[in-house]
Structures are given as C-alpha cells and as structure tokens.
UniProtKB/TrEMBL annotation:
Keyword Metal-binding in annotation: yes
Protein name: Zinc finger SWIM domain protein
Record keywords, A-Z: Metal-binding, Zinc, Zinc-finger
A matching Pfam family: SWIM
UniProt source species: Pyrobaculum neutrophilum (strain DSM 2338 / JCM 9278 / NBRC 100436 / V24Sta)
Amino acid sequence: MLCKEAAKGAVYKLNEEVYIRSVERRGLWLVALCYVRSQSRREECYQVVLKLKLGTRYFTGRCECPDFRYRGGPCKHIVRAKVALREYLKAATSLRRLL
Ligand SMILES: [Zn+2]
C-alpha cells in the first residue's frame, strides 16, 4: 500500500515511518494493524499485523515484506511496528488519565 493512503486512516503515526490503522482487543490478545514504510521503496508501506498477549511481553506478528516471507521470522518492520504500538499505548494511557 502507498504510505500516503495508509496515513489517511491512521489513529497514530510515528516519525512518518509507522502508521497504526487500528488497535483492538480480541480475547487475551491486542491486535494492531500497522503499516511500516519500506527502506528501499520509500513511497510504499508494508502491512504488519501485530498480536500482543495482554499482561505479558509476548508478541507475535506477520509482515508482507519479502524478507519476512523468505525467512518467516520477525523482520525490522515488525520491530518498528512494535515500538510504535508501545508509544501509542503509552499515549492512550495518559489520555485515559486525563478523562
Ligand atoms: Zn517486514
């Protein structure tokens, strides 16, 4: 997806590199739909789905980049999406405190 399209519906963005489209709770999991800018094709964003187990540090994710498809393991986009999600949750927590 083009990053400018991903940016439109974003609930949170980090440094124009990561866009979080949605975060929702599914049972014991927090599921975040993110788009992370490609290093080689700067207009393009890869879709990353991140799952975080609530109350633990355990997370899993998948990314549509060639690196992830080839290796099947966490790529740098997943790592970046996780950083952005952590920032988003921090911001959301301080918002809740204000309300
Ligand atoms: Zn990736």
